[in-house]
Design a protein that fits this description.
- The chain is mainly α and 486 residues long.
- It is 64% helix and 1% strand.
- It has 22 helices and 2 strands.
- The chain has a two-stranded antiparallel sheet with strand order 1-2.
- The longest helix is centred in the middle third of the chain and has 25 residues.
- The N terminus is likely disordered.
- It comes from Oidiodendron maius (strain Zn).
- One of its GO terms (molecular function) is zinc ion binding.
- InterPro entries: Osmoadaptation_assoc, Zn2-C6_fun-type_DNA-bd_sf, Zn2Cys6_DnaBD.
């Protein structure tokens, strides 16, 4: 092992690119200009292996390289410029790999001359980085050049240096997204605006929402992230969910927004006719999707009842009649969905058990009630769907109880107790299963439990529901989602 005279001490990146490195520590100027991570210059002496075997291999490789470099390429005068692939087209990326792909697709039987052209094209640097840097520069200049608020924008001058020094993907993504949003609004280009709301963009806040469901200090944290996802979904447009993956995202967000809209008693844009129909043109609705349609509409009427109640509008007979007719229509839709029962949710003995729920509620311990009613269940998914159906029945009955005459109050109260008993029976079945021990628990049953805890007139039912929510929050890691909203 001896010192190799003249061996470069430049960083590894510069040596691979075969450019002169100024060996500045900790990052050389070439790597900083190219926005790549600099491994640093070599410190100390550089030694190489000069054994006989290595010298023989080295001299052989050198002779081969000299022979190849002495070859003269064939004349390429016969190649027309039209045959060369376009470097910048709307359908291709401005990258060497896409250029090579385009060349291979246009001429599958490439000649040796064409291969030389491809090699020359691969040596051309990509302009993507320069375009992005120009985009960021124009973005900062546009904001700083506008009047007002200099103290709010002065820090933006440091953004290019932060991008080079810290190399954070989230920072780059945020800057590029803000730049594209600004220019799409200035140019009124709807295509660019829609490109900002990709599938990955929707997934990011959804995953943050799941994190807040598991570990959170507030009942609203996971809702904030999911509401942000719903807003991105709305900005993407109702036509943007025709692919299989995008449609799955849409259905997941739609179901989660039922929980949020119900808890906050606020109507959702997903309850509009266009959002209930257009995303399902390519993918027909299942019976579960039809139930979600009804549950999506219910929070809007809960909001109307709450608003009229606080403003004294329920004193008007016409207002009460209007709300009552709408709520009765929702109740009829739920009953029709149950009678269809394409999923086989309710076995033959269900009606018999339904008539005995209230009797068990008042004549025996509640543990015995749950044990009797839980016998018809055999499938976990059907149990969760049944609980969602019962939660819708409770919400509609609770709203009808608030706007109806006093003599009907007992009827709706019995209906709420009956549906609450069904939900708790579903919970009793799921609670003894171990399928969710490593999956965070059954998310869909948390919402029905919260409905029981906040709507049931039975102190026994509300206490049992709250105990289950507290235990699930501790044992299944659902502390964020199991918190009750006030």
């Amino acid at each position: 092992m001896v010192r190799l005279v003249g061996r470069s001490k430049g960083c590894e990146s510069c040596r691979k690119r075969r450019i002169k490195c100024d060996e500045i520590s900790p990052q050389c100027s070439q790597c900083v200009l190219s926005s790549i991570r600099c491994p640093g210059a070599i410190v100390g002496n550089v030694f190489i292996n000069v054994s006989d075997d290595f010298q023989e291999k080295y001299s052989k490789c050198t002779r081969i390289r000299k022979k190849r470099s002495n070859r003269k390429p064939k004349s390429m005068d016969f190649i027309k410029t039209n045959d060369l692939p376009k470097i910048l087209t709307p359908d291709t990326e401005d990258t060497p790999s896409s250029q090579l792909r385009s060349t291979n697709q246009q001429s599958p039987d490439a000649s040796p001359s064409r291969e030389i052209v491809q090699c020359q094209m691969l040596s051309q640097p990509s302009t993507a980085f320069a375009l992005k840097e120009q985009l960021v520069g124009n973005f900062i200049h546009s904001l700083l050049g506008s009047p007002g608020g200099p103290m709010m924008k002065r820090w933006m001058l440091e953004l290019p240096y932060l991008m080079l020094q810290e190399n954070l993907p989230t920072l780059r993504y945020a800057i590029y997204a803000s730049s594209m949003a600004l220019y799409s609004n200035m140019e009124e280009d709807a295509v660019i605006q829609r490109e900002a709301f990709t599938d990955g963009t929707l997934c990011a806040p959804m995953l943050l929402s799941f994190y807040e469901m598991i570990r959170s200090t507030s009942a609203y944290n996971w809702m904030n992230h999911m509401t942000a996802t719903a807003r991105l979904l709305q900005l993407r447009g109702v036509e943007g969910f025709d692919t299989d993956f995008a449609h799955r995202l849409f259905c997941s967000v739609r179901l989660a927004m039922i929980y949020i809209s119900t808890a906050l008693q606020k109507p959702s844009f997903l309850a509009s006719d266009i959002w209930l129909t257009r995303p399902f043109l390519k993918y027909p609705k299942s019976q579960f999707d039809e139930l979600v349609d009804i549950l999506t509409i219910i929070p809007g009427y809960l909001s109307m009842v709450s608003k009229e109640k606080s403003s004294g509008g329920l004193d008007s007979p016409s207002v009460c009649l209007h709300l009552r007719n709408r709520l009765l229509a929702l109740s009829a839709a739920l009953q029709e969905w149950k009678e269809t029962d394409q999923m086989g949710l309710y076995p033959n003995e269900w009606d018999h058990l339904s008539t005995r729920r209230i009797m068990h509620e008042h004549s025996s311990t509640y543990a015995r009630t749950i044990g009797v009613i839980s016998s018809p269940y055999h499938d976990p998914f059907k149990v969760e769907v049944s609980a969602l159906y019962d939660s819708g029945c409770i919400l509609v009955a609770k709203a009808l109880q608030e706007i109806s005459e006093s003599y009907l109050s007992a009827t709706y109260e019995d209906a709420i107790i009956s549906s609450s008993a069904s939900i708790l029976a579903s919970v009793a079945y799921i609670d003894c299963k171990t399928a969710w021990r490593n999956a965070g628990g059954p998310f869909r049953l948390v919402h029905p439990l919260q409905v029981v805890a906040q709507s049931s007139p039975s102190a026994q039912q509300t206490s049992y529901a709250r105990d289950i929510l507290s235990r699930w929050g501790e044992s299944w890691g659902l502390s964020g989602m199991c918190m009750l909203t006030t």
